[in-house]
Amino acid sequence: MEEQGYFYRDTWAEVDLDYIAENVKSVRSHLPQDVTIIAVVKANAYGHGDVQVAQTALEAGASYLAVAFMDEAIALRNKGIKAPILVLGASRPEDVEVAAKFAITLTVFQKEWVQEARKHLEGNQSISVHIKLDTGMGRIGIRNAEELISIHQLIAEDERFQFEGVYTHFATADELDQTYFQQQLEIFEKMIAALPNRPKYIHSSNSAAALRFPKAYFNAVRIGIAMYGLTPSLEMEQEIPFTLKEAFSLNSRLVHVKKLEKGDKVSYGATYESEEEEWIGTIPIGYADGWIRRLQGQEVLVAGERSPIVGRICMDQCMIRLPRYLPIGTTVTLIGTQENQFISVNEVAKKLETINYEVPCIIANRVPRLYKKNGKVVDLKNDLLNNYQA
């Protein structure tokens, strides 16, 4: 097919950049205009494609990006992204000069880190930092006002460090019970009140809080899962103030079709046995692609109908029970829409007994991503820098 110009297996994901843009615009219209949107594009933009999503989000109303590690930030810089980028996770103090070189903002949460990092900035290099507060997530962050003030003083003493932001992360913003969320918010407010001066950015809200709690906006919010059209949790589905458009779909094609007789078996362990004559199709996707063995029995869409995966999923292939004979080359949709049927990321997550965040993240990089922009599937592999520079 035409859009497969650079890969040679009939399995691919499609990412609808128009949907991502619409989701960001919906969030933008939901927030006060003076609240900055920080688009979270860590983990290859939750498996959707880092530079493609980053540029789309910036065009749609975000003005800052966030990633997990310096490696991800540098990758975006090397792909032409010039917007501010915040590293949310821990960075080594000896790498601070690299961060300065690439104009990457780092997260600070240890006094010792600041002391060590000061030794590694060269000449007139400078770096922006955000201080992370642990108000109850229990991951990384400063846990009391005294330590916050101490770190703030260290930063203020060195003009090469620009104190640009302070933030925290909510553990339960997507749950109906707001008790723990409220506790975290109160702790955050008390800690930032202890600062002798406030930085440019104060942010606490993830997607869930940004959609639900105006009192937690401050002057910036971090939008992750909602940008991709996915609900932060099933519990809060009814509280989302606008329609989210799911951007990720996963497709394959039949590469082999055969008729089984009653009693014939399929795949490793011979765990599936046909009860009557039936048509079985093979598709080239397996657990090495992130379509893991636990998805045995999950339905897919073929010819506009639901068909189950039968037998154990192999490393590179799996088999489905067809509703009837269908020709080789027929499209199979594992996630997404086909005719009037839809298989959501949430449905696959339920089968895996996990959350929707995990599903696109675990679809391996060897599954090529195609991108829909202005309603058309486009091949961005060969000219990303021409079309997607900030």
3D structure, described in words:
The chain has 390 residues and is an alpha/beta fold. The protein folds into 2 domains: 17-228, TIM Barrel, CATH 3.20.20.10; 248-343, Lyase, Ornithine Decarboxylase, Chain A, domain 1 (Beta Barrel), CATH 2.40.37. 26% of the residues lie in helices and 25% in strands. It is built from 12 helices and 21 strands. The protein has helices at 17-30, 42-46, 50-60, 70-78, 96-101, 111-117, 145-157, 179-193, 207-212, 345-352, 358-362, 384-387, and strands at 11-16, 36-40, 64-67, 85-87, 106-108, 127-132, 161-167, 201-205, 220-223, 248-253, 256-260, 265-266, 272-273, 278-283, 299-302, 305-310, 318-322, 331-338, 341-343, 369-373, 376-378. The strands form 3 sheets. Strands 1, 10, 11, 14, 15, 16, 17, 18, 19, 20 and 21 form an 11-stranded mixed beta sheet that branches. An 8-stranded parallel beta sheet has the order 4-3-2-9-8-7-6-5. A two-stranded antiparallel sheet has the order 12-13. A hairpin with a 2-residue loop joins β18 (331-338) and β19. It is elongated and about 80 Å long. The protein starts with 10 loop residues before the first strand and ends with a helix. Residues 382-390 have low confidence and may be disordered.
Number of domains: 2
The oligomeric status of these chains comes to single chain
The fraction of residues assigned to DSSP E strands is: 25-35%
The CATH homologous superfamily of the largest domain is called Alanine racemase
What is the name of the CATH architecture of the largest domain? Alpha-Beta Barrel
Number of helices: 12
Task: Identify the CATH class of the largest domain.
Answer: Alpha Beta
State the secondary-structure class. Answer: alpha/beta
Helix content: 25-40%
Radius of gyration over C-alpha positions, nearest whole angstrom: 24 Å
CATH topology of the largest domain: TIM Barrel
**Shape by Cα distribution:** elongated
Mean pLDDT comes to: 94
Note the gap between the termini: 31 Å
Q: Report the major sheet.
A: 11 strands, mixed
Taking pLDDT < 50 over at least 5 consecutive residues as the criterion, the unreliable ranges are: 382-390
Q: What's the count of strands?
A: 21
